[in-house]
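QUALITY CONTROL LOG
STEP: pairwise intake check
CHECKER ROLE: data steward
CRITERIA: each record must contain a sequence immediately followed by its structure tokens, with no blank fields

ENTRY 1 OF 2
RESULT FIELD BELOW
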Amino acid sequence: MENFTRARKANGIYEFKHGSGLTLLLVPQNGLKVTTANITYRVGSRNEGLGVRGATHYLEHGMFKGSKKFNKKLKNGMWKLEEFGAYMNATTYTDRTNYFAVIDSDKLNEVIMREADRMFEPLLDKEELKKEMTVVRNEFERGENNDFEVLQKRVMAMAFMAHPYHHSTIGWKSEIEGVVETEALKKFHDTFYKPNNATYTFVGNFDSEKVMQMVHDEFSKFDEGDQSIPDMYTTEPLQMGQRRVNMQRPTNCALMCISFKAPNGLHEDAIALKVIANMISKGPNALSQTFKKDESLPIHDIIAEWERMRDPYLFSIWGTTNSPTKSALQQTEECIEKILKMFHDPSTMKDLMESSKGNIKNGWDNEMLGTRNTAMAINEAIARGDAFDVYRRYELLEQVNLRKIQEVAKKYFDLRQSTVGWLWPGEVPNEIVPTNYDPLKTQTFATLPSSNTSDFEASNDVFTKYGNGKADVRISLQSDTSSVQTYICNYLLSQLMTRGFTIENNLCSEEKLYKFLQDKNIQRAMSGSVDSLHVQASIPVSDLETGCNLLLRELKNPILDKSTFEYLKKKWCSELYGSKNNVNHMAKFALNQALFQKTDPNYRYSFDEIVKHLNSMAYQTLKDTHSKLLTAPRLVTLVSPKGHTVKNHGVWKRNVDNHLMKQGEPNEIKINGKSSTVLRYGMVVEYSDALKLAVAVLGNGFTGRLMRIVRDECGYTYGINASLVPMKGCAVFQITGTFSPTKLKEGTEKTEEVIKEWLKNDLTEEEVRVQKSETIGSKNVQFDAPGALASAIHHTKLMYGSVDRINKYETIINKITLDEINAAKGLISFEKLSKVRVGSL
């Protein structure tokens, strides 16, 4: 088009420059008529100065509050897109902020109009931003419950003295509470949120010419006035000695990390560091494995972490222990240093290096399946400095060799340029509160391919059509009993059965299996539940038969090594012990145990119950459980671009005759030192689509009453929702919210007020219309994620006995009447709700 200047093109990415300064990236793909529209602003926490730290994240929230033409008063704001079935969100990080929506391609103009208007004229209303402050603070407080996040923030603050990477994206609590000055935020917005500081990316099955016209129509209102962007010119000075951070807080864990100064993400050494990180912690032959399996060492896990950022960043190696002591942390740090010394002479690591390169390549391939994933990968490349790096990185990866690995390790793994962080259990010291003295107070590019116009609606199996070359397999095997022992065995089997198998008296070791999966780019994982073992796999269509045969061999003839069994028991005990400090996990288990008796297959066992039985579990019990699974009822689902197959082997028991629901006093679990408290309500009910729609009116994201009132109007929480969760033979109506301990009383009162109002009065036609529109519109959008389609078909077969429901879903939902929805709501009684609170009460 004449309004755009053609720029670069490569690997299906077409770049254009608009007259407003906006960069446009078009990535047309075959598949469902779904598109991800993502706008990336090249502004993040690195661009913030004194007085506006946390501003980019705060604006991420604020820009959802509406713009001049699209806002709450007009009832057509950003969240209106959910009515069209869109999945939408935004993220903020050090180098960029992005806003995205995954939506039916025919509805793209609804997204583009709103995106342009909130760039041009966001409301940034003072009162709305004030309420959002407590929401953002609650998000910060939830992160402060996580030991890893807490230590990472302080390591970053110690490692970077000058560069703004020293403060986290969300900022510190006092900054969050102080960044609500509307004029400062507007000035920050007007400085950085401009067309020439943004890239708008479209990935999916869309009409290219129409998208370009829509973008031009909306962004042409930006004049070519002052669009200069301030440079961030600060560089970190040379570090001349190791720095250390020691932290103590109420926790059951002990963890540490050692972080080294490393280059920016587009540097020629950055990909080699990616390979090194993989060599340290990925796969059965990773360098960390020797130390992890040494029973004389208290090491639970060693994980290398390397993110490619716009400016020089940190290469970090994290260590967790099985013992929450300083001596365990010291041993872990010494083991990490031994791993780093191995790179002084990597001559014996060629196979490991090649395996790591293959693992990275497969990871990149798989992260770009689906329109949303592709758009997010491009988003991160833009943040690093070049959108086309999503493909350039492959070339750099191919060039990595042992010599490069040795050179890079020698250059960056210098203890003098490292920062070490330790965290272990202890009491929090008293806070020193400053006294503020106020003296006045004492006085009175290239040619585009033709548009894809394939009409997928012609097929009865419309939902099985998608545009990649992989097939997804789902297998579920049902145990004959549901007990804590069955759950433990299923979980341990899920970990052991992926570690090698026998075939015709020959051994396929974990190492050989890992290499084979990597070479074929096959991803598979197993998981265990209280009465089932589940397998999910993603297999290239060209190797489908080989991949399926491999899955069957893993299920039938796993090695089940006894020493690994003992190692996994020890490792799991350590993880369970640490989970007792996690407010979300504890609240989930507490509510479940408030609703179900132990004899119910929906019951979830406590961490203490699991540990007790885990420690006494015999190896033979595991083998016996595996033998029974081989003859258990089985459901197999295969979905590929050509269609789907679902097969039953035996009768899968879906129904439960009787649910012994417990109704007791409110359950409270106090965990000291937590900055965010979880509040949950729940009740066992019979599942119906009518009730699901009623519950959606109460708590389905921003179209639900809870988020609209408890979060948006009152600012008590970052997140609160209501849902109807299908279980075995029943469903659970549940509400989950997080609150600061200081806001828990008000938040609880307002939440209960909203619930009672929802129960008391009939829902309106408009409320129900919105939820019907959203649930129908989101059907194809949810299938954009790789594997989501196979999981939906598999789950639907398990729940309903037939997959016809997926194609008939729109008809099913539209047939439900308002009277039926209001009647279904009558199943719920406020007096019968179980209530759980977990945290610092």
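ENTRY 2 OF 2
RESULT FIELD BELOW
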Amino acid sequence: MDYDALSDEIYVPDARHNVVDVLAPVDSEMSTLPPEPEYVFHLPASPQSVAITNEGQLGFVAMRGGSVSMLDILGRQIVYTVFVGGTPHFIITGLYPPALVPKPPSASVQVIRQQPIVGRVFWIALVAVLLLIAGLALFFMRWRWTRKQRRPTGRSRSPS
């Protein structure tokens, strides 16, 4: 069951008759109660739950057999039915459906951009330190090799 805050209508799934009953709002000043249901949505399968979007334009009905129907509330008709599989038991709708590609707020973008830079700086520093160590090792090895080449061997050659 769900409630449309804009029209005050209540949407009740009726699994026995494969419909969603729409109940009219009732207030204390009415002298007679309205006939119920105000109108119905006839469905291809037994409804398990219903959810209405907050602006009251669309409704979604989870049905036995693994399908979900989208309702056009203002047009009072089923717009589309999709097979989702399984046994859906409930539907949740959010305030405003997200765009195809959500854009994060500018503050989030700055945080996202700063994190990879910190990671890159770490790797650049690590590579620089490793290159420095490798360079020093090569320099030391060459220095030892040239020093060894210059050192006289222990035997002295006499001039002839």
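INTAKE CHECK: passed for both entries
DESCRIPTIVE NOTE, ENTRY 2: Residues 20 and 102 are 33 Å apart (CA to CA).
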